[in-house]
Amino acid sequence: MQLLLEREKIEGEELKALVQEPVHSSKGGFQSVAAGGRRMRKGFSAAERLVVFCRYPAPGRVKTRLVPELGPLGAAELHRRLTERVISLAGAVAAGRRADLEIAYAGGSRQAMERWVGRGPTLVPQSGRDLGARMEAVFLSAFREGARRVVLVGTDIPGLASVHLDRALDALSSANVVLGPSLDGGYWLIGLDRPAGVFRSVPWGTAEVRARTLALVSRLGLRVHELDPLRDVDTSDDLRDEGWVRSLRGPFVSVIIPAFQEEAHVASAVRSARDEEAEILVVDGGSTDATVRRAAGAGARVVSGPRGRALQQNRGREESAGRVLLFLHADSRLPEGYAGAVFRTLLESGTAAGAFRFRTDGSGPMMRMVEGMTNIRSRLFQLPYGDQGIFLRREVFEGVGGFPEVAIAEDLLLVRRLARWGRIRIADRAVVTSARRWRSLGVLRTTLINQVILAGCLWGDRRTSYPRSIDPNGRTELREDRGAQSPCAAR
């Protein structure tokens, strides 16, 4: 999980951690340091167990009270960041104490959870008719398996630190119950040293949860220890108290469309990108036809930039505000529901970037063969072309230095850079691109030209040195071997 809750400047090897290990960033797939905790073996349990009680971040099904302000994807993104942060903290604490770590999840399948957090931590589905029954089942299972001190923590507490988890486990050496009270009358953590009926007859979701729980603890004659109160994030008022959340108020995705003399296609590309949580920028390279007028008429914000697809796309990044950048060719169309597909794809563990499946508006068996071969290449070798709609988190794009400013094949060179930091995933939906090149030059000739360019760029890229260092401004320091100039480097 690449977690980086607060978008600090990336330095040194932190870019690799961004897409491969947490401390999932808003940036790319989460690869959990939770794996640092002990993976439980059947019939054997450590004395201590940390349980992260969470939901799968399905847009529209998590943080629903924040959807009016953040949108379904923005609310899910907030939930993802908070959850990944807690899993990372719990994993580090569990590893340091040689404790068991368990993720008790709801709202998604085991397969979806494994794609998100990886296969390191122990995953257990929640079960029970209400919140109290689900938490009680987690504790009963832990004690049945031999644990003696069990702490369960929620995931919507931005102020949580590892010291809180350590203190909770330590407190159970002398107390029977430990509570982490939240400012809204509930609690963000509960720990027990034995099975106890503290989850029954509690009015969950109200301001009476903590008070009712303490009354039950007193009635049972149990010793209780309370940690510092912390604020959780549930409502718009909670957002205003957390300055870092402001970054979530912008668009989830910026669709950046470089264009030059594309009056016949650009409006269709813009219309396909319309989404409540997206901004659409067309970066025009000096068109003299109706490209600018038609792009603006379709709903895009049009900015000018120096001609050249790499230059225009980098310019689009400078003008954009989205947390995710999606680069779409002007003769291509995005699939319906593309923003959700982008969210799901980047959620996968260890992901640096993604792209869509490839399809054209051409017909005939030869075009179907080209499409099939392109999709096989994209998945097998993680080498999508730019006309498949490459997307990635802003921090990752900036960290690798953006598109190489070359005349051709900037998409392939970017993907090769990204592959050093994580996987390039292919979404389950297809972008439809114009088959005009194949119609103009013929299928065989166009395919041959593409393969020659691909081979030349890969050969040149193999002989280019990319030191993995980031300057203080978040840009990757990339040094080229001038004696092995790539054929793609002509300007």
Describe the structure.
The longest helix has 31 residues. With 491 residues, the chain is an alpha/beta fold. It is elongated, with a radius of gyration of 25 Å. The protein folds into two domains: 214 residues, Spore Coat Polysaccharide Biosynthesis Protein SpsA, Chain A (Alpha-Beta Complex); 239 residues, Alpha-Beta Complex (Spore Coat Polysaccharide Biosynthesis Protein SpsA, Chain A), CATH 3.90.550.10. Strand 8, helix 8 and strand 9 form a beta-alpha-beta unit. The N terminus and C terminus are likely disordered. 37% of the residues lie in helices and 18% in strands. The chain is built from 16 helices and 15 strands. The protein has a seven-stranded mixed β-sheet with strand order 3-2-1-4-6-5-7, with helices on both faces. A five-stranded mixed β-sheet has the order 10-9-8-11-14, with helices on both faces. Strands 12-15-13 form a three-stranded mixed β-sheet, with helices on both faces.
Strand order, main sheet: write it out.
3-2-1-4-6-5-7
CATH class of the largest domain: Alpha Beta
For the record, what is the CATH homologous superfamily label of the largest domain? Spore Coat Polysaccharide Biosynthesis Protein SpsA, Chain A
Radius of gyration, in Å, reads 25 Å
Total domain units:
2
CATH architecture of the largest domain: Alpha-Beta Complex
Q: Which blocks of ≥5 consecutive residues have pLDDT under 50?
A: 1-28, 463-491
Average pLDDT, to the nearest integer?
A: 84
- Indicate the proportion of strand residues: 15-25%
The main pleated sheet reads as: 7 strands, mixed
How would the global form be characterised?
A: elongated
Q: Could you please say which CATH topology of the largest domain applies here?
A: Spore Coat Polysaccharide Biosynthesis Protein SpsA, Chain A
First-residue to last-residue Cα separation: 38 Å
Number of alpha- plus pi-helical segments: 16
- Helix content percent band: 25-40%
Number of E-type strands: 15
Strand pairing plus helix content: what structural class?
alpha/beta
